[in-house]
Amino acid sequence: MTWRPVTPEAWRPRGIPNLEPNAWTALRRAESTSVVAGPGAGKSEFLAQRAAYLLETGLCKAPQQILAISFKTDAAANLAARVRKRCPPELADRFVSLTFDAFTKSLVDRFHSAIPPHWRPTRPYDIGFPTRRMVEEELNRIRRIAQPAWQARVAAFSPATFEAQDIGSRRLEADAHQQFTTAEEFAIYHWLHQQLFGTEVSKLTFVTLNRLAELIVRANSRIARALRMTYPYVFVDEFQDTSFAQYDFLLSTFGQRGTVLTAVGDHKQRIMGWAGARQDTFERFEADFGAQRVNLLFNFRSSPELVRVQHFVAQALDPRSPQIQSQATSQLDRDVVQVWKSSSTAAERQRLAQWIVADMAARQKQPRDYVLLVRQRPDQFEQELQPTFVAAGLSIRNENRTIGRTNVQDLMVDEAASVALAALRLATGQRSAGAWSVLSRAVYAIRGANEDDELLRDRADRDIQNFLGMLEQDIRGQAPSTELAMEITQRIFGFLDVVAIKGAFAAYMRNDLLEIMIEGFSLHLQQAAAATTNWPDCIDRYVGTFDIPLMTVHKSKGLEYDTVFFVGLDDQSWWSHTPRNPEGIATFFVALSRAKQRAIFLFCEHRGARERVSELYEMLTDAGVEEVDVN
Length: 631
Prior knowledge:
The protein is built from 27 helices and 19 strands. By secondary structure, the protein is α/β, with parallel strands linked by helices. A seven-stranded parallel sheet has the order 13-16-12-17-18-11-19. The chain has a six-stranded parallel sheet with strand order 3-2-6-7-1-8, sandwiched between helices. Strands 4-5 form a two-stranded parallel sheet.
């Protein structure tokens, strides 16, 4: 043991000076709590501190664990990393950080035999991601086999919301049942039956996996009790994005006595309605779980002027929004928020590239201090902007770009890929204490070498050094190539042992995420190797060290940048926006709130009008934001 429990009264924050008063209130609560935290409030940091508090005080007693549920892979990885920095290893190992989809899928895989036969998928099964057209075709098939009296109702289902809302809000019958009394029952049954038994191998969506996981818990009291005993404390991040199915799963699994839930989010950043997010998550949670609401009032990210402008948008979403207090230091005395207007895309991109070059030189900033945000179609904007940026000595990286079965952003925060990158850094001669820490900690976990087992850790250290030495010797003097990148990937994961990784890391235990990320690591490294002539440049290309990130607003959630450019604030990019639409305003709010020092919105007359989005411009005008002609 390298730690001793401290009393709750004596516990102090780890790695930061202090918490705001309301955060202290939420952190110490012994009952379920809904924490409404706006942009820059430090939601992830708050959860990491609460985890440290529960573990270090012994309120979460060994071998019990804390379960943290996030919506995005990078958010889950970030939270786990924060806890590891703030807690001794033996405590951090009892913090399990997963996405909703990974957790529910793991339950289906682990308790497959507990699923009633009439709902039990094949083993193995495939994961399906139906397009809108596929949903339409399946609903048409169901309509054709429905009795005439139900066909009009089946035809009325919306392909955009059918699965997220209609399937997601319906619980599966534990008993075999095929007596239908409504068109809804008939359509839902046949939708699920087709996924389960329509082909030789079941092809399930994550909504279906969620419904199966909920059924497992509801129909098997022992499993439900075991989960609640294992996880007496549960965190849910970005709670405003909780879907019907996800909320129902939480209610079935942890809605009984014995589990304390901490739900953190911001209803003003609810931008996942298109994916089935509920509109009343906080209200339902507070009623169903007896949770008390606590508002965090500090913004540690954005400068005072940015926070002032953000408040105008926040009030459009919720007139009761409290005034947030900026805790960040302003580095600029003017032009903090602007609208740039241009008549042509050529003038816009030329101004944008030249301005970034000048600002980087004047303020000693790096490419990744900036971000280009778009509402949709990042591939199209990348194609449009990249040539001009390259001519100016800059490079754009589309963080949404697909790599195999994942994307750039998710790959960059994946734990296994990060370990492989650390091994590559060390094998190519980089002297990095951070890389050694990442690699050795992973190997210790894979081999079960705990903090007190010095003999096993010494042996692991020697094995790591021997492996790196041989790898370095074999690639020394060789320029990067696609073939060598493939070989390096195979050797690194061969040394780490894929089976052992799955046994050591909860995120990979019961799904094919590890295989997806290994494939992504290899493909991305091959691309970097093909474009560079030495290993330091190859690693920089892989990481995107000298690239300006481009991404959708949805992908930017949880991230922050010195300067944010929102490209395409026009009717073409916002074709679906309607006046006073809360999700559209929330998307605008999320984009504005990623900025630490400056936010610039770009409008090009050639690209589209701004009638649909006129209210967004009115908010900026009301806040006193200047519009500048950049032709």
